[in-house]
Amino acid sequence: MASKQVVGWQVGAKMPQQLVTSALQRAFWSQLPALGLLVHSDRGGQYCGKAYRQLLHDHQALRSQSSRGDCDDNA
């Protein structure tokens, strides 16, 4: 069931991998992920790094990314 509720966020002047992993970790602390959780992102380097992928794996979340070169796919 999708709620479209924001459960984790982080703000910064730039968007390094640490920023997105912190936001995702906050979400996991705020609300335990449901089985089969799907986390969608674009193909930015922040979402391809080892720490981010490991965090998803540790919480049994599935990673979904937009198609290469298709900016509308993430909408």
Summarize the structure.
By secondary structure, this protein is an alpha+beta fold. 31% of the residues lie in helices and 11% in strands. It is globular and about 30 Å long.
Helices and strands in order, then pairings?
Layout: H1 17-30, E1 38-41, H2 50-58, E2 62-65
Parallel strand pairs: 1-2
Question: What report would you give on this structure?
Answer:
By secondary structure, this protein is an alpha+beta fold. It has a domain of 45 residues. The chain is built from two helices and two strands; from the N terminus they run αβαβ. A two-stranded parallel ribbon has the order 1-2. It is globular. It comes from Hymenobacter lapidiphilus. Pfam families: rve (PF00665). InterPro entries: Integrase_cat-core, RNaseH-like_sf, Transposase_IS3/IS150/IS904. This is DDE-type integrase/transposase/recombinase.
